[in-house]
Amino acid sequence: MKRIKFIDFRREYNFLKDKIHPAIDKIITRGNFILGEEVQKFESAFSHFCNTRYAVGVNSGTDALFLALRASGIEKGDEVIVPAFTYAATVLAVVYTGAKPVFCDVDLETYSLSPQDVITKITSRTKAIIPVHLYGHPAPMPELLRIARDRKLTVIEDCAQAHGARWRNSNGKWQVVGSGGDLGCFSFYPTKNLGCYGDGGIVVTDNKKLYRSLLMLRDYGRRSKYQHTIIGYNSRLDTVQAGILGVKLKYLNSWNKRRRELATIYNSYLKDIPEVVIPREQKGYYHVYHLYPLRVKYKRDELYNYLNTRGIQCLIHYPIPCHLQPAFKYLGYKRGDLPNSEKLAREVLSLPLYPFITKDEIEYICLTVKRFFRH
Q1: Residue 31: how many CB atoms within 10 A of its CB?
Q2: What is the DSSP string of 218-230?
Q3: What homologous superfamily is domain 252-374 in, according to CATH?
Q4: What CATH number has the domain spanning 9-249?
Q5: Other residues' Cβ atoms within 10 Å of the Cβ of residue 143
């Protein structure tokens, strides 16, 4: 029986180790571990990648969102619209500011915020919208930006799962996620399309005022070593992680292209199974397939167990939508409030997909899925 990991980090490491080790050795030899030159170099390279003016490295994707909210002036009494179907960190970042997260339903095709539902959730207290580019497919940015601009709302993009994903703007030009809103927030958790060897994150923006605020917020709120102008935090991107990310960023486009090729293989095998719905790339969007989320119409959990017992490690992202999480019970939501989010939570099953998985392994996974529905 084959053993297929959801992600095999060793394969990527073996591909990169001759470049990773010298980058780490250089930093250790120099001894500049906090905000060393590799941080500035990576920030510059990543802002260029996103086609934004500025980038500020922080210690996680969660802090990227939190500091972006803080820099935008979000505080207690404000409301921030978030999708119910996302990882909890999106919501937690809002809670940390003292603001109220307002859950919105998602579209069943893109798994992202539904613009129609967003409009119904806006009140006089709404200050910001957080679109999440879930699983690597961009949220419907043209519609969401139009809604936000008409109502003078801040747009903070959660790009944690979509490094390098793109969408066509109103001029017909491709725009990288993170560059359309006021701020774009990325995670470099090891499983991401661009991941480091620990925790890390970054915020990108074109706004100089927000950029300067972020620089202080991530570093104790100080302008100089012992002059603390605002209440800040210890949220800096480690120099070692920046050095690793600087090496890996050069491969991101080719790795994303490979993910798309692998997703096409999955689609070709699974498209004719009536019991499942394959992920679809919407017209005008460039999907980078952080995950391959298969929607299973019934017996999702049984298929999950079937695959895992046959050596195929698969995961469920996410079995409980955020509005039904015990941590957010105080917000007063109940089952049935956001039906699309609840439906996806019952149906989505993530199959292994990363740049170093082989075509043979994907074929084996697909044949095993087909076997499940035939017996």
Answers
A1: 8
A2: TBTTEEETTEE-S
A3: Aspartate Aminotransferase, domain 1 (3.90.1150.10)
A4: 3.40.640.10
A5: 16
pLDDT in tens, 16-30: 999 999 999 999 999
Q: How far apart are CA 218 and CA 236, in angstroms?
A: 6
Q: Is the pLDDT of residue 1 over 90?
A: no
Share of the chain above pLDDT 70, in %: 100
Calculate the CA 186 to chain-centre distance.
6
Over residues 290-315, mean pLDDT: 98
Tens-place pLDDT, residues 44-65 = 999 999 999 999 999 999 999 9
Q: Domain-by-domain residue ranges, the chain?
A: 9-249, 252-374
Element (H, E) at 340: helix 339-347
For residue 110, give the nearest of 162, 153, 186 by alpha carbon. 162
Write down the pLDDT at residue 54. 98
Residue with tokens 């069943």: 108
Q: Which two tokens stand for residue 38?
A: 């590799």
Q: How far apart are CA 241 and CA 246, in angstroms?
A: 9
Query: If you compute the radius of gyration of the chain from its CA atoms, what whole number of angstroms results?
Result: 21
Please state, in angstroms and as integers, the Cα–Cα distance from residue 112 to each residue in 17, 60, 92, 108, following that order: 36, 22, 18, 8
| 133 close to 157: Cβ distance less than 8 angstroms | yes
pLDDT tens for 181-217 read 999 999 999 999 999 999 999 999 999 999 999 999 9
In whole angstroms, give the CA distance from residue 86 to residue 57: 23
Question: Which of 188, 191, 189, 202 is CA-nearest to residue 235?
Answer: 202
pTM over 0.90: yes
Residue type, 10: R
Q: What's the 3-state SS for 141-181?
A: HHHHHHHHHHCCCEEEEECCCCCCCEEECCCCCEEECCCCC
